[in-house]
Amino acid sequence: MTATDEALLRRTFEIASNAQQHGNMPFGALLAGPDGAALLEMENGYFPDCDATAHAERLLASAASKHYRAPFLAECTLYSSAEPCAMCAGAIYWTGIGRVVYGLSEHSLKALTGDHPDNPTMDLPCRIVFQAGQRSIQVEGPLLEDEAAALHQNAWAQEKP
Length: 161
Description:
7 helices; alpha/beta
């Protein structure tokens, strides 16, 4: 993990914290260009519309696809506070983003959330989803997992409307 990776991954933790302050679960993602500059940031967006597909990574992949073309995105990195789920990994794959760096693993997230109805975690590593495709996507994580897990310590005990 480079110093840039560390700084940008920690930024996703701040984005995740902001998501929680805005009434959502603590997930955040950002897209960095080939030079390491942050291009897009996205919080979890479940509320207010109760959109179960509004994960930070999926929303970011959709925005990236609208703003940039695949050859550029292949040189970009998506940083995420938690490992992209199968749905988000699919969105990242189809968008053409070339690298993913994440904090908390799906396996660890599942241990933290238990059987919480708002997060029926699929313990399916994003690497497995990416390996099923024809594009090569570099994956680094889990990284700074204790810091990433700290965001979730009390999040899943809170009841949501």
